[in-house]
Amino acid sequence: MTQTIRRIAITTGGGDAPGLNAVIRAVVSSAANRSWECVGIRDGFNGILQPDNYPQGGTLLLTRDQVRGISHLGGTILGTTNKGNPFSYPTRQSDGSVIETDRSDELLAWFKREGIDALVSVGGDGSLTIANALHRKGLRVVGVPKTIDNDLDKTFTTFGFDTAVSFATECLDRLHSTAQSHQRVMVVEVMGRYAGWIALHAGISGGAHAILIPEIGFDLDKVAEKIRQRDTQGRQYSLVVVAEGAKSRDGQRALQAPAKAGHAERLGGIGEQVAEALGRLTGKEARTVVLGHLLRGGSPTTFDRLAALRFGTAAVRALDEGLSGVMVALAHPNVNYVSLEEVAGRMKAVPHDSDTLQTGRDLGVCFGD
Ligand code: F6P
Q1: What average pLDDT does this structure show over 223-249?
Q2: DSSP H helical segments within the chain, as ranges?
Q3: Tens digit of each residue's pLDDT (9 = 90 or more) over 268-292
Q4: Helix, strand, coil fractions of the chain, as percent rounded to 5
Q5: 305 and 293 share a domain?
Q6: Domain finish residue from 243, 270, 297
Q7: 174 and 260 share a domain?
Q8: Do 80 and 44 share a structural domain?
Q9: Ligand 1 touching residue 126 (CB < 6 A)
Q10: 127 and 50 share a domain?
Q11: Nearest to residue 329, comparing CAs of 69, 114, 142, 75?
C-alpha cells in the first residue's frame, strides 16, 4: 500500500525556462487543496547540500500566498543550477581542485528527517535522470519536463520551448528589414544543445533562407550557393539560422568551454564561424546575432503557461494516485504519465522524416545538405 502523503518537496533544476513559476504555483496550489504541505528547495538540491550558503534557509515552506500571481513571471522563485548533480556533486578540495562525489544518501536522509513523502522534480534531461536515480533509491518522485530545447523524449513538447521559439521568430522578423536594407547575410545563432528544434521551428516560422541544425551535417558551399541564387533573383539579403550544436559534415562543434567536474561542455560560437565563412564564400557582408540566454527569459507564452499549469497539477495528481518514477508528459491533446526510465539519458533529436523539416524543404529552405 502506498504511504499517505502529507508533505512534498519541489525543486527546479538545470537551465531556467519560462513557465517554471507556473509549475511551482500549480504544484503548491494542488498540494494545498489536498491539505499537503509543499517545501521548495533552493537552487536544485544546493539548498540541502550546501545549507551554509543560505543564511535565510536552503528550503522554504511554500504557501498559496507565496505563489500567488507568479505564473506569468520568467525564471524560478526557487533558483536553479546545472552544476548540482547529487550523484556527482562538485566538491572543492583543499588544494583548490574540484572532484565529483556521490552525496545522494545525504539527500535521501534529509527527506526522511524532514518527513517529506515525495518530490516533484522540474527539469530537463539532467534533472530527470537524477530524479530517476533517486526513485531507484526509494524516493517517491514525479518529474515535470522543462527545457527551451524541446529535446526530451516521450513528450510532445516541453514547456519553455514555445516561448523561446516565439521570441526567436520575432527576432528574425526584425532582422529581415535590416538585412534587406543593407543587403547583408545575417546569421542568427540560437540555443538548443545537440537538438535543432528551436532553430528549425523559429527558422521556418521566421522565413529564414537557410537553417543549420545538429541533425544534418552542413556544407557551407551549399548555403553560399543558395545565397548567390537569391542574389541573382534580386533578393540580395539572406537570413541563416544556426543551432549552437550544428556542425559541418566533417567538423567539430563550436565550444565556449569544455566539460569539467560538475559542468557539461558549453556550446557557442558556431554563428560567428558560419558568418565568417559565408562572407568569404559569397563576397557579401555577413553579420552574426547570438540570441543565447535571451531565449530563456521573459514571460511564458500562453501555450507554455498553460502547459506548465497542466503539468504541475498533473504531477500532484500522479502522486495522489500513488504513482512514482514517472514524468508528466504531453500526449497531445492530453497529459499522460511516462516512466522516467524511458526518458532518462535519452535525447529527442529532430527526425529526418519530420514533416516540419519537409515543410522547410518544400518552402525552399536550404539545410546545408
Ligand atoms: O538547456 C538549455 C540551455 O539553454 C541550452 O540551450 C544551452 O546550451 C545551455 O542551456 C546553456 O547553459 P548555461 O546557461 O549554463 O550556459
Answers
A1: 98
A2: 20-33, 46-49, 64-67, 104-113, 125-136, 161-182, 197-205, 220-232, 270-282, 302-320, 340-343, 355-362
A3: 999 999 999 999 999 999 999 999 9
A4: 40, 20, 40
A5: no
A6: 297
A7: yes
A8: yes
A9: no
A10: yes
A11: 142
309 and 232: one domain?
A: no
Q: Within this chain, do residues 291 and 304 fall inside the same structural domain, yes or no?
A: no
Which residue's CA is the closest to the ligand 1 atom numbered 14?
15
261 falls in which pLDDT band (50, 70, 90)?
A: confident
Q: Residues with catalytic annotation?
A: 149
Place of cell 569544455: 258
Centre of ligand 1 to C-alpha 95, Å, is 29
User: What is the Å distance from ligand 1's center to 292 Cα?
Assistant: 8
Asked if residue 192 has its Cβ within 6 Å of ligand 1, the reply is: yes
In a domain, 101, yes or no: yes
| Any atom of ligand 1 within 6 Å of the Cβ of 191 | yes
Atom of ligand 1 nearest to the CA of 191: 6
Which domain range does residue 118 map to?
7-159+300-342
Note whether residue 286 is domain-resident: yes
> Does 271 contact ligand 1 (Cβ within 6 A)?
no
Task: Determine contact, residues 300/308, Cβ cutoff 8 Å.
Answer: yes
Tens-place pLDDT, residues 42-61: 999 999 999 999 999 999 99
Whether residue 133 is found in the same domain as residue 18: yes
Q: What does the CA dihedral 263, 350, 306, 315 come to, rounded to 10 degrees?
A: -60
Hey, what amino acid is at 59? Answer: T
Would you say the CB of residue 149 lies under 6 angstroms from ligand 1?
Answer: yes
Question: How many structural domains compose the chain?
Answer: 2
The verdict on 99 and 206 lying in the same domain is no
The mean per-residue pLDDT over the stretch 74-89 comes to: 96
Question: Which grid coordinates are listed for 221?
Answer: 558551399
Residue 360 lies in a domain: no
pLDDT single digits (tens) 106-163: 999 999 999 999 999 999 999 999 999 999 999 999 999 999 999 999 999 999 999 9
